[in-house]
Specification:
The chain has 11 helices and 8 strands. The protein is of the alpha/beta class. It has a single domain, classed as Vaccinia Virus protein VP39 (Rossmann fold), CATH 3.40.50. Strands 1, 2, 3, 4, 5, 6, 7 and 8 form an 8-stranded mixed sheet that branches. Pfam families: Methyltransf_19.
Amino acid sequence: MSDMAEPDIDDASARRLNPHIPHPARIYDYLLGGKDNFAADRAAADELAKYSPGIRAGVRAHRAFLRRAVRHLAAEAGIDQFLDIGTGIPTQGNTHEIAQEIDPRARVAYVDNDPIVLVHGRALLTGTPTGMTTVIEADLRRPAEILTHPDVRAVIDFDRPVGVILAGMLHFLTDEEDPHGLVEQVKAAVPSGSHLLLSHITFDFAPDVDKDGFKKPYEKGAAPMVPRTHDEVIRFFDGWRLIDPGMVEVVTWRPAPDEYQEPIEGGHAWAYGGIAVKP
């Protein structure tokens, strides 16, 4: 596979784009079978597969959880506006596609810190004529920049319930960066009735894995990998009410009867997922 073509991005973004440093969004894209990645990203993903042979099936199971969870928010919880932070490179089954299939008026603001995501997002994440989408380059480490960004404010009405999505990104924040505190700032900015959709990598389902080896490919990249325990992950939902079935392994969160459950080598997807509602 050849490297992707030189992206059409502005000079400031280009200076932040280093094809020699693996980035979580591009590693994830490669594991999903995408083409928007560099050799360094593919090498890191292949190294991960040595420690978790089922990782490709696992990330597809994680993506399936996201689709089911967004469908629940749009169809059952009545959420019609979504703040998707750490969205990653667009692929099939993006938040706005699922939500707007149910409610064509649904609005989605996407946020990611990789310039590649911004480029592809602006090109591909177009919504319905009655809905609206926007894509901004920002970082959860600076939540105020997200919450006050004019493009986000043009799409999201923070006086009405918001579906906040933090899928597969909090494990790229170290404890020193205070991920729980950052999430609390976002939770405080949305009103009662808002929902938090969250997923997070864990070693709880893989007690015998070489933990240092699994994390090593990310140590060379743009962000480290910090798997967390059940107790550490469930803290992100503090003060909000978890909906049934609570925070569980992503493959067991409301599996759809007609959804194909792909076998995962090793038996687990290595990720927790859940949704909570703000009282």
